[in-house]
UniProtKB/TrEMBL annotation:
InterPro entries: Aldose_1/G6P_1-epimerase (IPR008183), Gal_mutarotase_sf_dom (IPR011013), GH-type_carb-bd (IPR014718)
Pfam families (alphabetical): Aldose_epim (PF01263)
Name of the featured protein: Aldose 1-epimerase
């Protein structure tokens, strides 16, 4: 039996906190966005997350968006970098030249602090946090004071994630967040991408403009493959996907299930029902990995004229908390 441990180490030369518990191991990179960079079943040789190899580390550090579990705050695209909120318009840097939008916020590239790590009788854990105030570089764009904490726990039930946002300031702040979770397909040695079927609890598909990838406020009819995506499952690379959907819980749960028919196992990514939207991106239908991204809000939500509750556009009052739990496990 592998001992239950939590320790400081390295991942490809970067400072990391490693967790081990039974057959599982995971590592987080506090200095690079608090990114949970790997989650593995060492007994079976499974690598569930898309990990950067040594030759990819420089590109990963420059743009840590497609490996591990990056934190997006605020997530996805904002038209012209404009972010209207509570009677004011804030201006985010336009960092996606081809669309003229701001993309993915500030936390996935920022340094987080390790708050604690350790072990219990049945699991190991780590908590990382980032505190944004007038001394943080992103404050010039979104002048709100807040703390985000991420706690990962590793045990027999896989990898659990506890996310907490607290408004440290004295004004209403936007709470828009997502994870650009990058899942391997295949994750099992000896399997191919063709052995995999994915199911996601999507509802309706948002129509996105072709030139700027922004919601029009309308829905599109689901294709037969998308109906299968929310039903019996579909090959994850059946077509190029950069698609946006409402979330529609099934059996009270909001989740992605990825089944390896050859290995006879299913990876479950249960994200909780606070995430009202999904983005699904598969790197131009390139086999290897895809990103089922749980998201609180609709893309470009501050500039979409729809009811706030329908598009996940909400704020935290001074002193308020928001939290949600997710879990990745095998069944």
């Amino acid at each position: 039996m592998t001992p239950i441990t939590a320790f400081e180490g390295h991942y490809e030369g970067e400072a990391a906190i490693w967790l081990k518990a039974g057959r599982y191991e995971a590592a987080i990179l506090p200095g690079i966005g608090g990114n949970l960079i790997c989650f593995r079943d060492t007994d079976s040789g499974y690598r569930f997350l898309h990990e950067p190899g040594a030759e990819e580390m420089e590109a990963f550090k420059a743009n840590p968006g497609i490996h591990g579990i990056p934190v997006l705050f605020p997530p996805n695209r904002y038209e012209d970098g404009e972010f209207p909120w509570n009677g004011q318009t804030y201006h985010l840097p336009v960092n996606e030249a081809k669309t003229g939008n701001h993309l993915h916020g500030f936390l996935h590239t920022a340094a987080w602090e390790v708050e604690e790590f350790g072990t219990g009788t049945t699991d190991s854990f780590v908590t990382v946090a980032i505190k944004v105030d007038e001394n943080h570089p992103s404050y010039q764009y979104l002048p709100f004071k807040y703390t985000v904490k991420l706690r990962y726990t590793l045990g027999e039930g896989g990898l659990s994630q506890q996310l907490l946002v607290h408004n440290d300031g004295d004004v209403l702040m936007p709470c828009l967040l997502a994870f650009h979770t990058a899942i391997n397909a295949p994750f099992a040695p000896g399997s191919s991408a063709q052995d995999y079927r994915v199911k996601v609890t999507i509802g309706e598909r948002w129509e996105l403009s072709s030139d700027r990838m922004l919601p029009t406020g309308k829905f599109q009819e689901l294709t037969a493959d998308e109906v299968a995506l929310r039903g019996e499952g579909v090959y994850p690379f059946y077509a190029s996907m950069d698609n946006h959907y409402t979330a529609a819980a099934q059996n009270g749960r909001n989740r992605m299930e990825l089944t390896d028919s050859k290995a006879g196992v299913t990876l479950v990514y249960d994200v909780g029902t606070s995430y009202k939207q999904w983005m699904i991106w598969n790197n131009g239908a390139t086999e290897g990995f895809f990103c089922p991204e749980p998201q609180i809000n609709l893309v470009n939500a501050p500039k979409v004229d729809l009811p706030a509750d329908d598009i996940g556009l909400f704020g935290l009052e001074p002193g308020e908390y928001w939290e949600e739990s997710s879990r990745i496990y095998v069944k």
